[in-house]
Each structure stands twice: as structure tokens, then as C-alpha cells.
User: Fold Dynein heavy chain ATP-binding dynein motor region domain-containing protein from Hemiselmis andersenii.
Amino acid sequence: EIASDARPLVAQVNFSVTRSGLEGQLLGRTIQNEKPELERQKSELLKTEEEMKVRLSNLEKQLLEQLASSEGNILENKALIQALTDTKVSSQEIKQSLDNSHLVQVKLDNEREVYRNFARSGANVFFLIQALKSLNYMYQFDLPTYLHLFQSTLEASGTSEDVTQRLSILVTMLKRNIFNYVGRSLFKADRLTFGMHLVHGMNPEMFKEDEWEFFVGLLVANVSNSQVQIPEWVSADRRPALERLSATFPSLVMGLKLSQGGWDQWVQSPKPEARNEFPQSSSGLRPFQQMLVVQALRADRLQSAMEAFVTDGLGVAINLSTLNLGQVSSEVLPTTPIMFIVTPGA
Assistant:
């Protein structure tokens, strides 16, 4: 806390990372890697614009000085009139150049915007990782480490002439690298939680309104609103869960047509979370909605359903491969310390 008498003498600067600021930084890194000529042209353009603005300011300053130092009748001062004419011509040329520069900059910005969504995803991932400290105080990752990982993803993800395909590759590689890198730093019991957190944060389109909140228990349903008749094949211990699902998402449960054939066999399946195990009446379910059904009717298979969901969403297996020290050392900076935490029985 700065003393009140010292505050007028101190300039407070906020160095915290903002989402928009990080997005711009990641966009610059992406363009530098993917289209270095665009970044070079933009830098040169900004430099030229600043030089022209300085030149225009100097011309205006010189003109004012000449007017202030002029003696006698201004209209008879040929040197001053010539200087005014030259200044006017130069000023018009500079303004025209600035207008042309602005048009070129708009064109360059449009080309850069193609990579904006990837940079936005990268910034989003960083803040998703930052949220892990609420799960365990040890789970803290600094910005330089993340920037190094982001840059490594750009450099190691190959090339493609198709920009759309290239962006798809980059997003997939970023998800995979982030989960592998961060997942090794988490306790095994928390990896699945992180995977679900990452899928939810990076792919919000996979979740409809209130589905995530219901899944994690933030949305409490009023079972008295349930309008679906519970079939007899639903076990007594799963009836409350199905009633909560029905009360929150009545159209979802009604669309399942639980009274029709197939569901009584599905509930007895050893792997009900598999997509090909669901009855035909559930063909319209989205992947996360299928998991909600598993949560309600076969909670014993929920973990397997979550693992399959994360694997599909991130394109990476939850069960990470055996730790390879050589790979770990190649992923970190030479100045980054590596700490191993070994638990009893590991």
C-alpha cells in the first residue's frame, strides 16, 4: 500500500495480463510465424506513417516560426510566400501518403484477421490454465512458459497451403500440447477434470444452455416440474437423477422415448457410453447430451463417458504416456527448473 503523501509522486502501472492484450501478442507471434512478410510490411508501414506525421508536424512548426519572424507586409515577402506554397504542397503530399498508407494498413489488417480466432483461442487457453489454481494452489503456470509452448506449437505443426486447414491443424496441436504439458503437472485424479474444463472452455458450441451447469451441479432442478413418466426398468436409485434431468431438460428426456424398446437393453450394457450402444431413438443427441443421459441412468460408467468425451474433444488420450525426460527437457527453456514429485507407491 502506497502512503497517501507519496501517491502523487508515484505512477502506478498495471502489469497484469489481459485477455485482449494477450490475444494481440499471440496474433503477432502467429503472423510472424505464418506470414512473416505481413508482419514486416505492417512494421514498415507504421514506421513510415510515424515519420510522415513527424515531418508534417515539423512543417507546421517551421511555418509558424516564419510567420512569427516575418517583418513588414506579408504579401510582399516573396520568401515567405514561397515557403507557404512549399509547405502547402508538402502537406498535401504527406496527407495523401497517409491516406494511401491507411488503405494499405486496412488490407494488411484484413489478411491478419484470418488468424485472429486462433490467437483468441490461445489467449482463452491461457486463462483456462490460470483457473486451475482454484483446484490446487500448486497448479500455477506463468506467461513466459505458456508463450514458449505456444511458439513451439507454431513451429512444430508443419505447413499447409490451405489457410483453413492450417488453422485447424494449429488448434488441434495446441489442444494436444497444452493437455500433455499441463497434464503431466497435475495429479492423476485431476487430469480428467482439467480435460473437461479445457473442452468446455475451447468448444462452447458443444454445450447447450444450462447443460454444463447442470452437469457440474451448479443448477438445481425442481423435480416437481418433471412431466416425464419414469419407466419401470429404471432402478430406484437412478429415478431421482432422471427426474432432475427431466425437470431441467424436459424436451431432451421426452425425445429419448424411454418407453420404447432398446433402453432396457441399453441400461444393462457393459459399455453404455459407446455411441453405437445408444438406441435409435436417441440418434439426435449431441455428445454431451449423451453423457448427461449416462450420468442420470448409468453413473457407474460416467468416468468412462467423460474420458471418451475429452478424447474426442481434444484429440488426445487422457492416459498420458510414460514420462520421457528427454521430451520434457526439449519442451522447456534452459532456465526453467524441473521439479519431480514422487508419491509413495509410484
Observations:
- The mean pLDDT is 84.
